[in-house]
Amino acid sequence: MALTTNKSILDWIDEKVELVKPDKVVWIDGSEEQLDALRKEAVETGEMIKLNEEKLPGCYLHRTQPNDVARVEDRTFICSKKEEDAGPTNHWCDPDEMYKKLYDIARDSYKGRTMYVIPFSMGPIGSPLAKVGVELTDSIYVVLNMAIMTRVGKAVMDVLGDSNDWVRGFHAKCDVDPEKRYICQFPEDNAIISVNSAYGGNVLLGKKCFALRIASYQGWKEGWMAEHMLILGLQNPKGEVKYIAAAFPSACGKTNLAMLIPPKYLRDKGYKIWTVGDDISWMRIGKDGRLYAINPENGFFGVAPGTNEKSNFNALESTKKGTIFTNVLHNLDDNTVWWEGLNKDLPTNAIDWKGQPWDASKFVKADKSTYGAHPNSRFTAPAKNCPCISPEFDKGEGVPISAIVFGGRRAKCAPLVYQSKSWENGVFVGSAMASETTAAAAGAVGVVRRDPMAMLPFCGYHMGDYFQHWLDMGKKLGDKAPKIFNVNWFRTDDEGNFIWPGFGDNMRVLNWIIDRCEGKADATETAIGYVPKPEDIDLTDLDMDIDTLKDILTVDKDTWTKEAAEIEEHYKKFGDRLPQEIRNQLETLKANLEK
Ligand code: OXD
Ligand code: MN
User: Fold this and answer.
1) Residues paired with 118 in a beta bridge
2) Could you read off the pLDDT of 488-528 as tens digits, one per residue?
3) Is the Cβ atom of 250 under 6 angstroms away from ligand 1?
4) Buried (b) or exposed (e) across 370-383, using 16+ Cβ within 10 A?
């Protein structure tokens, strides 16, 4: 039975039913009873494997097709009416042409199948910062993942009422044919269509498609921000909590920072990190003029390999119940899961992510083809499982952001941390953000990839306009604007070893950041911004001397002169939609370097 009388929704569903011809239509009401019946059905058909109820209660394993294991940026389109509005960083197609192509692909594809209608809220239901979507899908896996990653059910339709302000998400699994796979956003229509995939990032339409690509466009039009940022709360010994939002390109440890456990001596003093979000932040100006953020998601869709008790205890704990694992290794000995980097106990009786018997004796670290879990294998875990989930997580008002942090992986260039000189200067820092490729990804190692605000694959409109939107938000925020910082945990020595220990020790840097926001720490002005006085980064209990710290705080003029030239090159593609203010910032940097 339909969970709403909203005509815009019912008409849209009728239209899609006519197109794909399902055998039946089922509304997802979010009840445990209904979800449990779907879990049972998925186990019966082999779509999911029920794991050891004692060790991993309520957990399941799913395998995707080997050709369908990651987001596909080359098949992701922003279909704005005008090509120039998608900008130089997105693939574009004319919306009419794309609708026709996608409808031709999806036509009749639900025959013999069920259409699931998922009403979902991004953000706590009814929060002034939340938004509503409806996803149609023919995949139980999608339904069950959406029920973890978002708030699902009738209450969502009740708060929407008759409003037309909802996002249309239409997914059709079709034949999972990579040649006909398309992930398309139609920002001017509030619509998303995804066909021929069944992998999370392509089909959980609330996540990247809505909460970033569509929402970034909505935020631009409506005066708020949708960002690829974690949100954490830093609690000091007095019990005060200050919030930080941080953007990093993939493979820079976003989930680890969001769930950081401080070093023992800081824990003993009473410091603690609370996780609000690990991937996406929606931010609006509150009544007091400050910037408030919510995490629009309700779960973590995290990368499994490398997650272990040491690297991220809290993430691992989050996966111990009610979690769906995708493309990890199945340990047949005790019907649990395993992935590279979980521990040193390689399972000897196991099935790999492709569904084949796994031979642990052939495992070679340098050869991914011998891995038991896919390098992009995932866990979909409820946020409420996380031991350090913020008490504010479920509150609709959002948390006031004191600092915005950008970062990337730079072997030599950026210092451990620096503060931008102003909001405008911080926007410049974000627009020039870059990370060097690692051996973990295919292709050459050490190649600099510019990824402004970590939004390169996720900005739903022209990036030049996006930078201008950031500048405009800064004008509205005035002196209430969060301070903007840049961090780099990845400076290396001459042998290529990381100098900074990272992980929990990053807390030492976060403390400096908060001290700066409160005017409690000094700094040295450099050509790029304010760098800590070495004695202000607390090295207690750390095997690092002050000279080594000084070394990773240096700003080398030659390196930065080269960097400025590369930024200039990077800006060329934005043409005259690059805001003049950003150009001025680059000119100021160049002049500072010449001083
Ligand atoms: C993600 C990503 O999956 O950024 O979160 O790729
Ligand atoms: Mn992400």
Assistant:
1) 135
2) 999 999 998 999 999 999 999 999 999 999 999 999 999 99
3) yes
4) bbbbbbbbbbbbbb
Q: Pick the atom of ligand 1 nearest to 454's CA.
A: 4
- What is the Å distance from ligand 2's center to 250 Cα? 7
Nearest atom in ligand 1 to the alpha carbon of residue 303 is 3
Q: Tens of pLDDT along 336-390?
A: 999 999 999 999 999 999 999 999 999 998 898 999 999 999 999 999 999 999 9
Q: What is the pLDDT of residue 442?
A: 55
Does 79 participate in catalysis according to the annotation? Answer: no
Cα 82 to the chain's mean position, in Å?
28
The pTM of this model reads: 0.97
Average pLDDT score, the chain = 96
Q: Are 340 and 419 a contacting pair, CB within 8 Å?
A: no
CA dist 172 and 175 (Å) reads: 9
Using an 8 Å Cβ cutoff, are 207 and 242 in contact? no
pLDDT value of residue 170: 98
Atom of ligand 1 nearest to the CA of 250: 4
Q: Residue whose CA is closest, atom 3 of ligand 1?
A: 201
Q: Whose CA is nearest to atom 6 of ligand 1?
A: 250
Pocket test for ligand 1, best of 250, 255, 281, 451 (most atoms within 8 A of CB): 250
Contact 438, 251 (CB under 8 A): yes
Q: Indicate the residue type of 262.
A: P
Relative to the alpha carbon of 246, which ligand is closest? 2
- By DSSP bridging, strand 324-326 and strand 378-382 are antiparallel
Angstrom CA distances, 32 to 28, 35, 139, 142, 144, stand at: 10, 5, 18, 16, 11
List 24's β-bridge partners, or say none: 114
